[in-house]
Amino acid sequence: MDESAVALSPISAAEFLQLEPNLRRLSPNGLLWLSGYCAGLAANEPQTALETALPNAVVVVFASQTGNAKRLAERYAQVLTTRGITATLKSFNKLSIKELKQTSVLWAVVSTQGDGEPPDDSRDLLTKLQRSAESLDKLRYAVLALGDSSYPKFCETGRQFEEQLQRLGAQPLSARVDCDVDFEDSAVTWMESQANWAERELKTNPRDTAANIHLMPTVKNNRIQASRDAPLALTVSHVQPLTSEQASQRVLHVELALPADGFAYQAGDSLGVYMPSSRVLVEQLLAFLSVDSTLLVTRKDKTLPITTWLTDELDITRIGRGLFDLIAQYGHLDFHNKNYAQLLKDNVISEQDQPLTLLTRLNLPITAHELVNALLPKTPRLYSISSDPQISDAIHLTVAVVEYAHQGTVLRGHASASLADAKPGSVVAAFIEPNERFRLPQDPLKDVIVIGAGTGIAPFRAFLQARQALQQRGRFWVFFGTRQREHDFLYQTEWLEAIKTGEVERFSAAFSRDQAEKIYVQDRLREASAELWQWLSNGAYLYVCGKANPMARDVHQTLVDILCSEGQQSQDSAELMLQAWAAERRYLRDVY
User: Fold this and answer.
1) Mean pLDDT on 503-510
2) Cα torsion 344, 349, 353, 355: sign
C-alpha cells in the first residue's frame, strides 16, 4: 500500500485497501476512463470540491453563462487528476477572496457574453475584487478567456478578472489566452501547457503517467449521459405551430421522444441539438464557388468533401473574423482588422447578412479551400426545455423559426429551420446541457416571479409543470411579453387554465403591438412595482429569460429603479442588492 497516497486521500485506509487490488487489475486506458467516470459522479454531488485544498493543489474555477467555460474547466480538472495533481473545481460564485488568499495556484476559465457582459455567476466575485484591498501576493494564476471577436469588448471579463488579480499582487504563470468562438484548439494548447507545468512542479504521485487532453464520459445517475462531444439520437414525435399565419415570426412546439437512458434532466436545463445545414443554402454556396459537391477540402489536417464541410461541420449562416480577414486579403480594406460590431456601425454589413449574401454582393473569386478555412465551426443550438420530466414523457422545445428574405435570397437559421422541416420519426443528434444556476428554489413554498419575452417563456412552462407536480407550493407570478395577443400568445390555453386553477397567482402580459404605444415587460414591472417589492422583500425568487439586449438589460435597470423607489435604496445599493440575490440564487437569469 502507498502510505503517502493514503495520507493525501480523503478516503480511509480501510476503503483504500478494498479499492487498490481491483484498481491494479485495470489497464492504463481503463484507469483513465474510471477517473473520468468518478469525476462525473462527484460532479453530481452537492459538494464537489475539497473544503481545504492541499498546499500543492490547483484550484480550477470557471465563470460560465452557456456552459462552455464550465465544460472546459471540468475537462481540465479531470486531466490534472489523471496526471497525479490534486485539483479542486469551483464556480466563481463559490469562490471567496478569503479562499483566494489561501490558494497557491489558480487556473481560471472565464467567458464573456456579447459585448463585455460578465456571466451572472461571476458578478459578485468581480465586484468584491474591485472593492478589495486584500493582498494576493502568494497566488499564482493563469487565465483562459472565452469570447466572441465580433464584439469590441472581446474577452472583457477575463481581462477584468486578471486586472484585479494583478492589482492585488497575484503573479501570472503565463500570459492570458483569449479564445474566439472557435476555441477548441487554443483551449487544448493552453491546457497542455498548464498541465505540463503542473506535472513538473506539483505532481504528488510519481507512479502516475501523463495523459493526453481528452474528454471523459459524462456520468449522471450512474449512467453514461449524452454530451456535447458525444450526442445521442432523439426522435421527433410531434411538431405543432404556436403562432398564427399572421404572426411576425413562426414559433413551433416540438416534442422529442425521451429514451430510457442518456437524457436525464430537470426544469431549467437546455437541450443542445446538432442539425445539418439547409440543403438549398449548401447548393447555393456550391454554385457560387463553381465546384463539384465531391471536391475534397482540407482544414486543420482534416480532409472531407466540401458538401460535408458545409452541411455538417461549419456554420454557413454566421459571419466572423475569419471571413472578414479573407475579404480584406482581396483588397476590401473596410474589413481589415474589424469586428462584426464595427462593420455594422459603419454600414459595411447588415444584421441580416450571411456568408452567401456577403460574398455574392462583393463577388469575390474565393476558392473552396479559402471559404472552408474562413467559416466558423458549427456549434450546437441550445434550446431551453419547456417541459418537466415529472409531467411529460417527452422533451418539449419552443422554437422560433429564423427565416427571412435578404438581397433576393431566402435565409434560414440552420437549427430552427431544420426543426421546422422535421417530420415525426426524424432523428436529431442532441444532448442535455445542465443549467445548475437556473433552478427552482429547493423550498417549494417559496414564491416565484418569472419574466420572459417571446420564446423566453419556455423554461417557465417547465417551472410551472415542476410546481404542478407538488401538492404544496408557493405563489407563481408570470410576466410575459410578445407582440400580439391574437397571433403569438405562446401556450395561451395552458396559462389561462393555470390562472383559473390558481396554480398561477398572477399573469402580467405585455403585448407590444396591440396598441399605439408599445408596452414591454419592464413596463408591466413598473406598473406593479409596489406589489413586486412586497413579494421580493418577503423572499420571492426572481427569474429572467430571453435576449440579453435589450430585454434583460432593460428589465435589470427597471428592477434597480423599483428597489430605489419602493425599497428606498440608492442606485449603488440597489445594484449590490441584486448582486447579493444573484449570489444567493434568488435572482437568476438565462439570457442570450
Assistant:
1) 97
2) negative
Annotated domain spans of the chain: 3-215, 233-265+384-433, 279-377, 448-591
Name the residue among 267, 184, 228, 265 with its Cα closest to residue 429: 228
**What would the grid cell of residue 441 be?**
428554489
Which amino acid belongs to residue 293?
S
b (16+ CB within 10 A) / e for 418-431 = bbbebeeeeebbbb
Per-residue cell: 283:
447548393
Cell numbers representing residue 389 in the block: 420530466
Helices and strands of the chain, counted as H and E runs? 22, 25
Mean pLDDT of 145-150: 86
- Three-state DSSP at 339 gives coil
**C-alpha grid cell for residue 381?**
443550438
- Is the CB of residue 523 less than 8 Å from the CB of residue 515? no
CA dihedral 79, 81, 83, 84 (to 10 degrees): 170
Average pLDDT over residues 477-490: 97
Domain 279-377 superfamily per CATH: NADPH-cytochrome p450 Reductase; Chain A, domain 3 (1.20.990.10)
Does residue 224 carry a pLDDT above 90? no
- Return the SS3 of 324: helix
pLDDT tens digits for range 245-287: 999 999 999 999 988 777 889 999 999 999 888 888 899 999 9
Q: What is the mean pLDDT of the chain?
A: 86
Which of these CATH numbers, 3.40.50.1580, 3.20.20.70, 3.30.420.40, 3.40.50.80, describes 448-591? 3.40.50.80
Band the pLDDT of 24: cuts 50, 70, 90: low
How far is it, in rounded angstroms, from Cα 171 to Cα 156?
Answer: 19
